[in-house]
Write a structure and sequence with these properties.
The complex is a heterodimer of chains A (about 270) and B (about 1150). By secondary structure, chain A is mainly α. Chain A has 13 helices and 1 strand. Chain B is α/β, with parallel strands linked by helices and about 1150 residues long. In chain B, the strands form 15 sheets. Chain B has a 7-stranded mixed sheet, with helices on both faces. Chain B has a 6-stranded mixed barrel with strand order 26-30-27-29-28-31. In chain B, helix 10 packs parallel to helix 12 and helix 18 crosses helix 20. Chain B is globular and about 90 Å long. Classes of the chains: A mainly alpha (about 270), B alpha/beta (about 1150). Chains A and B meet through helix 5, helix 6 and strand 1 of A and strand 2 and helix 31 of B. Strand 1 of chain A pairs antiparallel with strand 2 of chain B, so a sheet runs across the interface.
């Protein structure tokens, strides 16, 4: 009986197995790498030319983010302060500190300090700071607890999926506009009456807010329309203290928040 | 049942239209070109490029190299570099706008320039400037329109081939050596004996004052003015007419009902008096808004009413070759340039101007005389509302005649404003002829001029009349030359000084109505250049410098410039400002700041001329005879719509933008009528001819363009330069060697012969009029393909650009909706539901914003400002001549240009109207018609054939076409990776980083609006050639072995809000999505805690819209009822291109309405280009 298989097929099963193992390893490695925070650079914490501490300036001294990042609310770009901005204080405070030598030098010579970039979007992404800050998204939502960082590191993945997660469910992040730079923000600490009072001062009336609340929580429309019944309804639905769910729902409805999910919003 | 739409057959009767002679004659190569998804060769290797096999070899090598680079896949460390000190007005991420002005022949173009972090990236017109404001229907309006030269000028700053250093005898030197030279020179200059200053045309009052100062300081010095295209003839004409050298004229076209142009391309290259386009268009409206009614839920309904024949303007054009003005004209008369004077005389006589003798209409057939007489009768009907414009290149007599005619028509003060410039700004200059005389060695063995200081933008050694041998004459002369480019003069000069760009220096200008503008620098000179004012001030001596330091502190504070000493030019300009400011002197700092902010000094215009009295015309010598035949041609030296007189030769954007009429890129050609083309025995565009005139000869490729006056050659100047940058080198053929001082704009008695064999000339051969190849030889092939874009992406047999006469519009205002296939398409019933899964219609996804555009073909003149604005705004690269030849140009907007002739329709009609008794003639005509129709049967282009072409009765229409942003876009459904998708607000978006380059979308786009990056045009130099091993290939084909862009400087021009695309991705018009998003974000930022996030009325303007001088393009929000776009969409002229395909485009067009005088010869056929299409 002639042999069905030529000789070279003897090693074929082995070759197939080796190939499959290699392929499997490759796929596993690829997935492993791209799905880890390492890939998205969460935790990336480069050293800076000046050992500037956000923890001291923001956490302990209570400086507002916008003192240094002064254009974040008006421009797409959140600027890093000029040496002059640092020297506004450091002419008097710690004027001789050796740590500040590069800043003093930049101020004197005009040759700027080169800060190492921590958060970097790809160049085809056109992120805009001002539109987020002015519509109730806080610094903290993307940059983490900067007030606790001695050296800034990247806290969130900043991947497209992560962006879209919020764009699809903005109510999980929305805050009253006064709270966007507050790192200690806690919805539970909000006064319900003050919160709704502010919304009504912005031009939203009680029936509208009640209707929004009922719509978001699948309640039958009651048609009631005074402030008292709004308070009762809110307390009945969410309990004694305010929750992020309530804040987010109300703000999204009142401010007409519809974050774009189409390509051209971020890619041009 | 599936419905399949076949391309409609073009009609067998009526008008025919075509884009090129290839299409008209239905040549096989044209068919082949047409039937491809991309233009032939666009997806292949061809010509001298790499073969497929070589390509695979190269690819193998580059893949191997790629492995070496794999280690760099981690993100590199990046830095944030803030300013060390806060800079006033600077917000990182936001542009700063500055008002300034660009010099031009007729004054200046007032501008607003966008600057990102100190880099000027985009220029636009200044809508605040009085020259950009006008009254329309009793309303004050303004425009930001400009022209394509203005749009492209920003690229010149970053040209890596710009002159970067001082040259001493052609050897790089440094500024301090020049300072040393200057010091010595000043010590020896004395009273300026033997010193000559050569300057260009400008309206700058400061330069006028410096010249006056120089005249005082050097009483024996001489002052010359020279530019190739100058206003000498116009000035002389007006001086003869009104007895004043200081006349400035501003046509008010919005008031004119009948306009006749005597070779004045006022819509295109010859924009006399500010911005005449917008005024013209405002009188061109075929309809007016009769009422706006508020409807349900905030919607508005707009009611349009056609205007009467006498309410709409009518344009007559007399010209030699088609220009955009001729294209817009209702009636056009083609005449050789030399014969325009004759036409003007006939016109003057017809209008009853006294003292004009009977003119022998030599060379003018009965029909042409009839044409002029009928036009004159029409003009006479509109006293005070008619206007005759004479072209800048016409002799002084024509300008004088135009003045006389305008007076007769009562135009002065009505349609033509006469102004007078201040006496001290009008300085008499000597001309180039005097310069030639003074530079020659006189009888005493001495030259009249021993030092020549030149600041003119012209290149004396390249573009001066050929009988002036300046190269020899300048020997032994100290020649100080200021210029932007290292041209022939720069290389021959004793001292060459790099000039600052107009956006890099302080200066001032007056617009054509005299309004004073300060031009301010947006950036320090990139390569350390000097401005003209700076240089001339230095020749005034160190006293001027002392003035500078005295007032330095003020200037530093006011202008917030760096701590360096202020430019002496700034001090001089401020002095002028104070002289002019008069009443503003109190708090001059404030007035100055206002002038800098607004871009002009209010109420600083020229004073109107009181009671002008026009002197009678006296014609010197006999009238020129018309060109008799092909053995005595007339050659016209045309300014070029790309390089002007040669100064923009190194501007890649301009080089690659197709000419307004010929669609030629990267070069020039001898353009002639189809009849002359045939008479010369030419067969194909691109065949070389040898032209002999004035005893000189030169070679040019020939190109046939219908509608050129017979026996005329139109040759653009400015090409074939040997001393210019990489972009301009090798482009085109030099026409200047044919030009003498007697024949500045046209010459008669030329002959042309077709070259039978390929020629190789030595570089110093007097006939060699193009840049030599690398081996120093000049090659003139018998035939070389012209880099035309007109046949790319053509669409056949369909009523794409629609037009009609005003009478037809009155009969049926909606006629344009039923042209072509649209007359018989059934209702579109589609199985495909344009809605989301939960039933929301796609165009309701964003209830606040749905973007759309209209383009008014009645207003569009085809000037290409939009194309250039798009290039600047959207970071569109240039691809080079080789790539254009294979149809890979990247411009997002393409300007389609169609010609139409009455062809067989006229013959049919003639047969119809021939008396029945004249059997023989009638039979003959019918036979011709029949045989033509028979010949055309079975082809998609029936009745083609140039034999029947009547070049006297032609029409031209232009149509800008970009992505139409279809609601049911056929490109989106075929993309395998969802790289092109619809956005909620109705844009057809491109996600570049998703695109894998299958090109299915371009394949499926019925409008052919998509462009593919075959190479890294932005990263690699598309113009040079590279040696790879044994092969020499175009640099793009060398891949990683190729040369990158030689300079990062070009990157500085890029708009930071638009992605710079890489190889392998598709791109197309985005409706300027960056501007849309910026506006939406601004609305949200302003809304803060409110739900009112709708963008304001007319708040988004696309780059093309902003640049359009005619405001033909309107962009807006369909969900904002007050937006202009909704009014335009409600016009009865509104139609969709290729409606029957069912793509539902968001861009729609408004049909062109002409206002023909049906009594004119050929007038019956005007505006009926698409009437017979169905």
């Amino acid at each position: 009986m002639p042999q069905f298989f030529p000789r070279w097929t003897n090693t074929l099963p082995l070759k197939i197995v080796i190939c499959l193992v290699l392929l499997g390893t490759g796929v596993t490695a690829a997935v492993w790498i791209t799905f880890t925070p390492k890939y998205t650079r969460v935790g990336y914490q480069p050293g800076q030319p000046v050992p500037y501490s956000h923890r001291i300036h923001v956490g302990e001294l209570g400086m507002d983010c916008r003192y240094c990042h002064s254009f974040a609310e008006t421009s797409s770009h959140s600027n890093v302060p000029t040496a002059e901005t640092c020297m506004n204080c450091h002419r008097q405070v710690k004027a001789q500190s050796p740590n500040l030598a590069p800043v003093r030098e930049a101020y004197a010579t005009g040759k700027p300090v080169e800060w190492v970039r921590v958060h970097k979007s790809p160049d085809y992404v056109y992120f805009n700071h001002s539109v987020h800050l002015n519509r109730g998204i806080s610094c903290q939502d993307c940059h983490g607890r900067v007030d606790e960082m001695e050296v800034v590191h990247q806290a969130e993945p900043h991947s497209m999926g992560w962006c879209l997660e919020c764009h699809r469910n903005p109510s999980k992040k929305l805050r009253p506009l006064g709270e966007v730079v507050n790192f200690d923000y806690d919805p539970a600490s909000l006064e319900r009456e003050a919160f709704y009072g502010d919304l009504m001062a912005e031009g939203h009336d009680a029936p509208e807010l009640i209707a929004a609340l009922e719509r978001a929580n699948g309640l039958a429309p009651s048609g009631s329309g005074d402030f008292g019944s709004l308070m009762t309804l809110a307390e009945k639905t969410f309990g004694e203290t305010m929750k992020q769910e309530e804040v987010g729902q109300q703000l999204q409805s009142a401010w007409g928040i519809h974050p774009p999910e189409h390509c051209s919003a971020c890619h041009r | 049942m599936k419905r399949i739409w076949h391309h409609p057959q073009p009609p067998a009767t009526g008008k025919r239209y075509w884009r090129s002679l290839g299409e008209l004659e239905d040549r096989p190569e044209f068919r082949g070109w047409l039937e491809r998804e991309f233009p032939a060769g666009a997806s292949e290797f061809g010509g001298d490029e790499v073969s497929r096999r070589n390509f695979i070899r190269l690819m193998g090598a580059s893949t191997a190299l790629a492995g070496l680079g794999a280690a760099s896949c981690r993100r590199p460390e990046a830095y944030i570099v803030p300013f060390a000190h806060n800079v006033e007005w600077t917000t990182p991420g936001k542009p700063v706008l500055y008002a300034t002005a660009m010099p031009r022949l007729d004054g200046c173009t007032p501008l607003v320039v966008t600057s990102y972090e100190g880099r000027p990236t985009k220029v636009d017109g200044n809508p605040l400037h009085p020259g950009q404001r006008f009254a329309e229907d009793g309303e004050e309006k303004s425009t930001s329109g400009t022209d394509h030269f203005t749009q492209a000028s920003v690229l010149d700053i970053y040209d890596p081939d710009r002159s970067r250093s001082f040259l001493n005898e052609g050897i790089p030197s440094d500024p301090s050596s020049f300072d040393g030279y200057l010091e010595k020179w000043l010590a020896e200059a004395g009273s300026g004996n033997g010193v000559g200053f050569l300057v260009g045309e400008t309206s700058s009052p400061t330069r006028a004052r410096i010249i006056r100062d120089l005249k005082i300081r050097y009483p024996e010095a001489k002052f010359y003015r020279y530019e190739v295209i100058n206003r000498d003839e116009a000035r002389a004409g007006w001086a003869a007419a009104l007895g004043s050298e200081r006349i400035a004229v501003v046509p008010r076209l919005e008031r004119a009902k009948r306009i006749l142009s005597l070779d004045c391309d006022f819509l295109g290259m010859d924009r006399v008096g500010g911005n005449p386009v917008r005024g013209f268009v405002s009188g061109r409206r075929a309809e007016k808004l009769a009422g706006v009614h508020d409807g349900e839920d905030g919607h508005k309904t707009y009611e349009w009413k056609p205007r009467g024949e006498d309410e709409m303007n009518r344009l007559y054009a007399v010209e030699a070759a088609y220009s955009v003005t001729g294209g817009m004209a209702d009636h056009r008369l083609r005449m050789p340039l030399s014969q325009v004077l004759r036409a003007a005389l006939i016109l003057a006589r017809e209008l009853g101007v006294e003292g004009v003798e009977e003119v022998e209409p030599a060379g003018l057939n009965v029909e042409r005389v009839e044409w002029l007489k009928t036009a004159a009768a029409d003009l006479r009907r509109f006293p005070g509302e008619a206007l005759v414009l004479a072209g800048t290149r016409q002799p002084a007599e024509v300008h004088h005649l135009a003045a006389v005619i305008n007076e007769k028509l009562g135009a002065f003060g009505e349609t033509l404003q006469l102004l007078e410039a201040p006496e001290n700004e009008s300085i008499p200059f000597l001309g180039v002829a005097d310069l030639w005389r003074d530079l020659r060695t006189g009888e005493d063995g001495q030259k009249g001029i021993r030092t020549l200081i030149s600041t003119t933008p012209a290149d004396l050694l390249y573009d001066a009349p050929d009988n002036y041998r300046f190269r020899e004459a300048l020997e032994g002369v100290e020649f100080v030359h200021l210029g932007m480019n290292r041209n022939l003069s720069a290389l021959a000069a004793t001292w060459h000084i790099p000039a600052a760009h107009y956006l890099e220096a302080w200066g001032d200008l007056r617009s054509s109505d005299g309004t004073y503008s300060v031009t301010q620098p947006l950036i320090l000179p990139l390569y350390g250049g000097l401005s003209e004012l700076d240089l001339l001030l230095r020749f005034l001596g160190p006293e001027e410098a002392a003035v500078a330091s005295d007032e330095g502190s003020w200037a530093t504070n006011a202008a917030a410039v760096s701590t360096e000493a202020p430019s002496p030019a700034l001090v001089a300009v401020r002095k002028t400002f104070e002289e002019l400011g008069g009443e503003f002197s109190e708090g001059a700092g404030t007035a100055w700041n206002y002038a800098l902010r607004d871009g002009f000094l209010p109420r600083s215009g020229y004073v109107p001329l009181e009671a002008p009295a026009v002197a009678p015309v006296r014609i010197r010598g006999p009238l020129p005879e018309p060109p008799a035949g092909v053995d005595s041609l007339e050659i016209a030296f045309q300014w070029d719509s790309k390089v002007y007189d040669g100064r923009f030769v190194n501007n890649g954007w301009l080089q690659e933008t197709p000419d307004m009429v010929t669609s030629l890129t990267w070069g020039n050609a001898a353009v002639m009528s189809v009849a002359t083309f045939k008479a010369l025995g030419l067969k194909r565009d691109g065949q070389r001819i040898r032209v002999v005139v004035n005893g000189r000869s030169a070679y040019f490729p020939a190109q046939a363009i219908p509608g050129v006056a017979d026996n005329c050659l139109m040759v653009a100047v400015g090409y074939g330069q040997t001393a210019c940058g990489e972009v301009g080198y090798g482009a085109g053929f030099d026409a200047y060697p044919l030009r003498t001082s007697e024949t500045t704009y046209f010459a008669r008695g030329a002959t042309a012969e077709v070259i039978e064999e390929d020629l190789i000339l030595e570089a110093d051969d007097p006939e060699a009029n193009r840049a030599p190849d690398r081996d120093g030889k000049v090659r003139v092939a018998r035939w070389e393909e012209l880099a035309l874009t007109q046949e790319h992406n053509s669409m056949e047999g369909r009523a794409l650009a629609r037009d009609g006469g005003l009478d037809e519009f009155h009969e049926d205002p909606e006629f344009s909706r039923y042209r072509g296939m649209d007359s018989h398409i059934p209702e579109n019933i589609s199985l495909y539901k344009p809605e989301t899964k939960d039933g929301t219609p796609f165009n309701e996804l964003d209830r606040n914003h749905q973007w759309a555009m209209t383009i008014d073909l009645s207003a569009c003149i085809g000037c290409r400002a939009c194309m250039m604005a798009c290039q600047a705004e959207n970071n569109i690269p240039i691809v080079g001549r080789e790539q254009v030849l294979i149809g890979r140009e990247m411009a997002w907007i393409r300007m389609d240009r169609y010609f139409a002739d009455s062809g067989i329709a006229e013959l049919e009609e003639e047969a119809e109207h021939t008396a029945p008794e004249d059997h023989a003639k009638r039979k003959e005509l019918k036979k011709t018609v029949k045989s033509a129709q028979k010949a055309a049967k079975g082809t998609s282009n029936p009745q083609r054939g140039v034999g029947l072409l009547n070049e006297d009765h032609l029409e031209m229409i232009t149509q800008p076409l970009a992505c139409q942003h279809c609601e049911s876009a056929s490109c989106e459904t075929v993309c395998p990776v969802n790289a092109t998708v619809h956005s909620d607000d109705g844009l057809n978006a491109m996600a570049y980083n998703r695109c894998i380059g299958t090109r299915y979308c371009a394949n499926n786009c019925p409008y052919k609006a998509r462009r593919f990056n075959y190479f890294d045009y932005n990263k690699r130099n598309p113009l040079s050639r590279t040696k790879v091993g044994p092969f020499e290939v175009g640099n793009l084909y060398a891949g990683p072995f190729g040369e990158k862009l030689r300079s990062d400087v070009l990157g500085l021009q890029k708009n930071p809000n638009v992605t710079v695309r890489m190889r392998g991705v598709m791109e197309k018009c985005t409706y300027c999505v960056q501007r849309v998003e910026t506006a939406k974000i601004a609305a949200k930022v302003a809304a803060r805690g409110s739900a009112d996030v709708k963008v304001g009325v007319d708040a988004v303007r696309t780059a093309c819209q902003q640049a359009c001088p005619a405001e033909a393009i309107v962009f807006g929000n369909l969900r904002q009822p007050a937006d202009t776009v909704n009014a335009m969409k409600a016009s009865p002229r509104n139609y969709e291109v290729l409606k029957y395909v069912g793509n539902r485009p968001r861009t729609t067009y408004l049909a062109r309405i002409k206002n023909p005088n049906r009594e004119m010869p050929g007038g019956r056929h005007v505006g009926q280009m698409t009437k017979h299409m169905h």
